[in-house]
Write a structure and sequence with these properties.
about 40% helix, three-stranded antiparallel beta sheet, about 240 residues, single chain, alpha+beta, globular, 2 domains
Length: about 240
């Protein structure tokens, strides 16, 4: 994928500097402010997401129950090989890489780039799955990964095998489907569904099930009978 649009704007202005040397700094500053405003205008969370417990329970009741299909045909590249901003999913078309959007949404104590407002230079993740506090520094090895709450393989088995490539690309880059989480825990989760994996931190079961169910409902994905039961059990931990 090419450079994000805000950064590309700055690059063009920098190359044009000799033609307008007197106002170069003002132009660059204006471009940066415009790019930051453009990025900020695109919300990083979908309206009404995640659903509250009552809504999630109603959505879960309406999901189709069936065994997963076509598991043997799943390939990661069916959802696109790389992160893409070119979708109409939550966070799409704002000029930022999807992973950068996730970090900007999920990290605390963030320090963002001056030249490119998409980039997070440093921050801290309070991992929802384990409760670990994980530091992040740009271009350094990190214990943070981006997780699809309903994994791509699980989505494929639940109906995504029948989608268009663009629909699958949209799903893979939908910020409501994604969370920044502990890398080791993400490896442990893999593509397992809710009946085969739950967050180690029990206090997160309610929100996990709300997110998981909301994703299934938004994309019309089916659930297996054991998966539905597991989601019901986790939703039962939600306090009124």
């Amino acid at each position: 994928m090419g450079p994000s649009r805000p950064l590309a704007v700055l690059a063009v202005l920098a190359l044009a500097a000799p033609a307008a040397a007197g106002c170069h700094h003002e132009d660059v500053a204006t471009a940066r402010a415009s790019a930051a405003a453009s990025v900020a205008r695109v919300p990083l969370v979908g309206s009404g997401f995640p659903p509250d417990a009552a809504s999630a329970k109603a959505q879960l009741a309406g999901l189709k129950v069936e065994w997963g299909r076509n598991w043997e045909t799943y390939k990661r590249e069916n959802f696109g090989r790389y992160w893409s901003d070119e979708t109409d999913a939550v966070g799409g078309r704002n000029g930022c890489d999807t992973r950068d959007d996730v970090l900007r949404r999920d990290l605390d104590d963030r320090r963002e780039g001056d030249r490119n407002p998409c980039v997070v230079l440093s921050g801290t993740l309070h991992d929802p799955y384990t409760g670990k506090v994980l530091p992040y520094t740009y271009r350094r090895a990190s214990q943070i990964q981006t997780d699809h709450v309903v994994a791509l393989g699980a989505a494929w088995r639940g109906g995504a095998y029948a989608w268009t490539p663009q629909r699958r690309l949209e799903y893979a880059n939908d910020l409501d489907v994604l969370l920044a989480v502990d890398k080791r825990t993400n490896y442990d989760k893999g593509s397992r569904t809710a009946d085969k994996w739950r967050p180690p931190r029990r206090a997160y079961w309610c929100e996990y099930a709300r997110r998981y169910t909301g994703i299934k409902a938004r994309y019309g994905l089916s659930v297996t009978a054991p998966e539905k039961l597991a989601l019901q059990e986790m939703l039962a931990t939600c306090t009124p």
